[in-house]
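Apologies for my clumsy wording, but could you write out the amino acids of a protein and the tokens describing how it folds?
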Amino acid sequence: MLSQEISASYQELSEEVEHVAEHLEPVEEGEMDDDQEDTSSAILPVLDSESGTSSPSVRFSKTCLKNVFSVILLFIYLLLMAVAVFLVYQTITDFREKLKHPVMSVSYKEVPLYDAPGIALYPGKAQLLSCKHHYYDHIPPLINPGQPGEIECITQRINYTDPFTNQTMKHALIVQGPRDVKKRELVFLQFHLNETDQDFSAINYLLFSSFQDFLSSPDKTEFMKDCESSYSSWKFSGGFRTWVKMSLVKTKEEDGRETVEFKQETSVVNYIDQRHKPASDQLFFVVFEWKDPFIQKVQDIVTANPWNMIALLCGIFLALFKAADFAKLSVKWMIKIRKRHLKRSQAMNHIS
């Protein structure tokens, strides 16, 4: 009788254990799948394998800590995404600003010889007495100042109408300028004005880039009109020796054209006239020389490099995609941990 009761109790216990095992098998399979997914994602470690033997309070504290850590990571990823978006906006804005505001680039080219510039003088009633080429900044003493002397320069006279008024006739004396900057070549001109009804006496002049272009021009009148419209004019006064030191500036425009501009430095020395002359007599002295052998070249350069911008944007977008991927995996991991915790709680409650 006793053995029958023991065998009946043993059979009932076996049936209950089998029933509990049937409920635990899908839970354990789900946990194995979750562990494999966590290992492949390599974002955060899985739950401790011994957590099943730990107390419920320890398991809860570990789960809570991991949830808090994953939320912090999620906020970090979102912050990185915001920074990346700002960098994209700032990069595109800077690129557009650099396109609108190119940087001026200045370079210098050394030359042994210049193209002989053209010197257009407007003497009016003044007479050209002499024109000579000298070298190494040396001008010999004047012989018979105020009297006609040697004219060694290549000169040409031309008349044309004023390009601004189209009414006034202008009389220009074109003189070939210096070329050899290494030998410090200069051109020395002397003018004489016998009478003048003006309070101040001066001679106008302008410089243009090439005397040879003037000689080879089929229409010299239009050539001089264009020069007067394009170049600035200056003056030198009577009773002084005006020393003009020229420098050349070439500027490249946005449309590809190249413009030429002369810069000059002038020094004025008083002429001590020791001749016996009438009070209205006036002498003019002017010297033209190159300042240095360097041609200044100016052009606008766009500093924005499209390849650098493309590379930077690619890196930023890569960071965006990685941050989004990390955020998505973190959210999945949080959901997975929550489901696992609920399954284990249900299993433990069922066993209890």
The radius of gyration is 47 Å.
